[in-house]
Design brief:
The chain has one domain: Flavodoxin domain (Rossmann fold), CATH 3.40.50. Helix content is about 40%, strand content about 15%. It has six helices and six strands. The chain has helices at about 15-25, 35-40, 45-55, 75-80, 130-140, 160-180, and strands at about 1-5, 30-35, 60-65, 100-105, 140, 145-150. Strands 1, 2, 3, 4, 5 and 6 form a six-stranded parallel β-sheet that branches. This is NADPH-quinone reductase. It comes from Chryseobacterium camelliae. InterPro entries: Flavodoxin_fold (IPR003680), Flavoprotein-like_sf (IPR029039), KefG/KefF (IPR046980). Keywords: Oxidoreductase.
Length: about 180
């Protein structure tokens, strides 16, 4: 069984992330989903409950929208609180060792803007080094991120195209889950 940490601050307003979650729920009903904004609207994260959830699973997906080249504040805070010394790292902090770490996110802007000459100056993978290092430092098995561009209706993308891309994204995640759970 796998765990999905949902770090979207308002999933009901996100067609892309909501579609991904709905698709995963239908294809993998045993998937445990922890919606951080619903569980902790006051950001008072229960480290013990979250650590227990992590311990129950060998595959952990972190689902979120890319905000200002990073993760939303609630997900960053979750890492700060949950990945404690002697749990996630330290001389006895091997509780996450060999678990799969899968970043899964959506990017509002088009792909053509994420390169050396584009508006955002870097490729998306370059914004994931902190995730890769976190996985490495905690002994987790980092999986290259699964993501897609063009999730903003405000940027001219249609709801139909966003949903179609989100379904493809969910299928890619489902394939990873099947691969790692066999």
């Amino acid at each position: 069984m796998a765990l999905l940490i949902l770090g979207h601050p308002d999933i009901e307003k996100s067609l892309a992330n909501r579609t991904i979650i709905e698709e995963l729920k239908s294809s993998h009903p045993a998937l445990e989903i922890r919606n951080l904004s619903m569980l902790y609207p006051d950001y008072n994260i229960n480290a013990v409950a979250e650590q227990e959830a992590l311990l129950r699973h060998d595959v952990v997906i972190f689902q979120y929208p890319l905000y200002w080249y990073s993760m939303p504040a609630i997900l960053k805070h979750w890492f700060d609180v949950v990945f404690e010394y002697q749990f996630a790292y330290g001389s006895q902090g091997d509780k996450l060792k060999d678990k799969y770490f899968i970043p899964s996110f959506t990017v509002g802007a088009p792909e053509r803007e994420y390169n050396a000459v584009g508006e955002h100056h870097f490729r998306v993978h370059e914004f994931c080094k902190n995730l890769e290092q976190t996985a490495y430092y905690t002994g987790m098995k980092y999986v290259d991120p699964i993501y897609f561009h063009g999730t903003s209706v405000n940027a001219g993308y249609t709801e139909e195209s966003i949903k179609a891309k989100a379904k493809i994204h969910a299928l890619a995640l489902a394939e990873k889950l099947t691969e790692f759970q066999n």
